[in-house]
Write a structure and sequence with these properties.
The protein is of the alpha+beta class. Helix content is 56%, strand content 11%. It has 3 domains: 98 residues, Winged helix-like DNA-binding domain superfamily/Winged helix DNA-binding domain (Arc Repressor Mutant, subunit A, Orthogonal Bundle); 161 residues, Restriction Endonuclease, CATH 3.40.91; 97 residues, no CATH class. The protein binds a DNA duplex (20 and 20 nucleotides) through α1 and α4.
DNA sequence: TCTAATGTACTATCCCCACA
DNA sequence: TGTGGGGATAGTACATTAGA
């Protein structure tokens, strides 16, 4: 055995002791759901990141190639060179798809979509801080669509908010005619979700995917990334036309959102709908609580008033009641109108109060006179 | 046009370290 | 103590470029 073959057999022995790590499964899943990805994308996704001290940690390019080769040798991935000067691509094999529990066919390399597809992966990494958490790929969406189902236009991806907000993500590399932009925006408007349901799946991509497909493709907004400012302006005008032709929104707030961002650097949409919705619901609950309190106070005041009227009615003689009403009628007639029933009741209450005050004052005067007589007789 | 130099993606190997 | 992972470095394969 030559020196070289001896070393190769040692490597082969080493490779046979392959230990599958969590990161390997993350890699296999990442590759599987996107279809095909390049080495630099895999490096960003699985071999680099911020450590606990806030500094960027990375392994060498060689280490990445070596680990990916191990995964290829283990039958999880397959590597394919594309064009000179380009990085090769990695795809998940059937074994890799099974290992991560995905019922998908191995991806096929389509040269027409090659650039677009890889840029979507870049976008997904850029929008999720290289984690791809909260990102659902077009490939996953399509895998859930059964014959006869319709969810309208399938976006390049879905990005999720922590509260269950769902944005369709579109990446434009080549560009479309203005009418096509209008049609696309119009179709998204058809599937705009007025409000996020309380039992929304939230951050869980699997549940969100089921919910998305089950709802017929409902989203809370669309975020579009362009490499050309001219195409972006064209699409923006189309979206404004669609919004102007529709009346949408929940609780008075327009939530049919189209955002038009540049692809470099990608910035995620503002996932504020859930918060706004929660705030709107809290405000509505507060308004309802105040309304009920006000209603309660009003009823109590009415009850007190009825009681007061009853006491005044009993307290006054019939003649006093008639005089109170007559005085009121004379007063209002001087202004050319008849008093209302409520005013008559108030006049009775006022007369009862006046009589009560007068009676108390008379009682007080009598008490004082008695006291003065008592003090005089006792010689004080 | 041929050929050597150069560039780029990727591999092989050695060696050290961490971990079970 | 055996084993896998990762850094460092040398090497391979292939395409492109430049110069004779």
């Amino acid at each position: 055995m030559s020196h070289k073959s001896a070393r190769n057999s040692r490597i082969a022995k080493k490779s046979s002791g392959f230990r599958l790590q969590d990161r390997d499964l993350r890699i296999a899943r990442f590759v599987a759901v996107h279809g095909y990805v390049t080495t630099p994308q895999l490096k960003l996704f699985a071999f680099e990141g911020w450590n606990d001290w806030g500094s960027w940690e990375s392994v060498s390019e060689q280490a990445v190639y070596r680990r990916l080769k191990v995964l290829c040798d283990a039958g999880l991935l397959e590597h394919q060179r594309t064009w000179y000067g380009d990085h090769g691509i990695y795809r998940a094999t059937r074994g890799g798809l099974e290992a991560v529990g995905l019922d998908l066919a191995p991806a096929r390399l389509d040269r027409r979509d090659y650039e677009h597809d890889l840029r979507v992966v870049d976008l997904a990494l850029g929008l999720t801080d290289y984690s791809c958490d909260g990102w659902i790929t077009e490939r996953l969406i399509r895998s859930r669509i059964r014959p006869g189902m319709s969810i309208g236009r399938v976006p390049d991806g879905l990005i999720l908010g922590p509260g269950g907000e769902r944005w369709a993500v579109e990446l434009e590399v080549s560009g479309k005619e203005a009418q096509r932009y209008y049609d696309v925006c119009d179709r998204y408007a058809d599937r705009h979700r007025d409000r996020i349901p309380d039992d929304s799946p939230g951050w869980d991509p699997e549940e969100q995917l089921d919910d998305y497909v089950g709802s017929g493709g409902e989203v809370d907004g669309v975020v579009w990334y362009f490499f050309s400012d001219k195409k972006r302006r064209r699409a923006l005008a189309a979206a404004e036309g669609v919004i102007a032709n529709r009346h949408v929104g929940y609780d008075g707030t327009d939530h049919l959102h189209f955002r038009f961002n540049g692809a470099d650097p990608p910035s995620p949409p503002l996932l504020e709908k859930w918060e706004e919705q929660r705030l709107a619901e809290r405000e509505a609950q507060e308004r309802e609580r105040r309304r009920r309190e006000e209603e309660h106070r009003r009823r109590e005041a009415q009850a007190r008033r009825r009681k007061l009227y009853q006491r005044a009615w009993n307290y006054l003689t019939e003649k006093e009641r008639e005089r109170a009403v007559k005085d009121l009628v004379d007063e209002t007639m001087r202004h050319g109108r008849h008093p209302s029933e409520e005013e008559k009741r108030q006049a009775i209450i006022d007369a009862g109060r006046a009589k009560h005050r007068s009676d108390r004052e008379r009682e007080e005067r009598k008490r004082r006179r008695k006291d003065a007589v008592r003090r005089f007789l006792s010689g004080q």
